[in-house]
Amino acid sequence: MKSNVLHSQAQEAGIFSAYHRPEFFCELMNRGEDLPEALRQVQERLAHFDIKELRHRTANAETQLYRLGITFTVYSDREAIDRVLPFDVIPRVLTAEEWAFIERGVQQRVKAINMFLWDIYHDRKILQDGLIPADLVLKNANYCQAMVGVDVPGGVYVHINGTDLIRDRSGRFLVLEDNARTPSGVSYVIENRHMMLRLMPDLASGMPLRSVEDYGLRLHRALCDVAPEGVENPQVVLLSPGIYNSAYFEHVFLAREMGVPLVEGRDLLVENHHVYMRTVAGLRPVHSIYRRIDDAFLDPLAFNPESLLGVPGLVEAYRRGNVTIANALGTGVADDKAVYAYMPRIIRYYLDEEPILGSVETHICAEPEGLAFTLANLEKLVVKPVGESGGYGLLIGPHATESELEDFRQRLLDNPSNYISQPVIDLSVAPTLCDAGVEARHVDLRPFALTGKSTWVLPGGLSRVALRKGSLVVNSSQGGGSKDTWVMSV
Description:
The chain is of the alpha+beta class.
């Protein structure tokens, strides 16, 4: 009873005095009868701040982010190329029990994804058994013929994985999508913690927070784990497209965190099917490459012949086992939005386990039933193109105009295989500093998992927040921001 009284007082005090408890699940407020002690402390401490002070600290955060160069690039906006990802000073909090559940679910999912990828590039048993349509895999734009029969070290295709999670009205965690190619955003997880400790020490002091500081060390260890056999002290490099890439800050950040060279394609060359790095002291062997370049641009001899970003001969060196590429080529099949619908079956098939994390009901428009259902319920659904990311090209039916609905209806009829549809999920919300004060805004969570000899999940993840009132789109390219994600150790 005492906990509930304090909970109520926290909501009525300070910055929460005008906070409207929404009908959605609130990450900080809707915690049932037994409020965890750590969350109660966060509520009480936040309640003693005033809006003016929070705005002052937020302004300091934006200034520091600019000075540190912590930006991303929006190519579609010619007037503001480099942007700071808006940082909200009110953290998103996860209890130790919630995190243990997420961690188990992510590890299970990554294991199943790696087994699925090995199978479709080798025996194809899951296709022969009819659990997933063969055409959905073999005719997938992300299926890489060059990977057929290639034995990757440890059976690991997805070394770095980002799993996008949402929370529904009841507080249940659901997987929204997988990011198994080149997931981005982990640099913001770490920098957000640095920013929070600098700007809000009076809020974080004494809190039992799980650390995010050893991600770089863990990433380097995972990449060494999967280096070619027999190599002592493997040379790891991070391969970037260069300074004009939208995530270049992150490339610099991660190379620094790992203590490895940041290279571009012109810095590497292949001789006798081995990869070398050009240095002032001559050529130096390279054993593991963390690539932040899409498959199509990695090797002009194997893929796009006009690519100036990749390394000629890299794919053949990889196929011969002389270098490891993370993530492996062809992993995009596993995070395809249509394949997502089959992930519960994939988990059961390979692991003989029930999925720990639930999935959002998904209708595949390439299938007649899925298309018919989508067309009949377009105004109620979220429709997504299977090949897009960043929140582009989707339709949120309840928020769409009649003309937008009709336009999308025609797109579905013209190219149904390019779309899937899902019901609109009531994403959870979190208190967020807005123009009118502290208000509820929708959030999601992207935990990052690293796989070498085993799978480790960074305690926390990127909590993205839709800053526009009522918006469900949290992507930075669509006006979203981020929060520090606090995982409590007790």
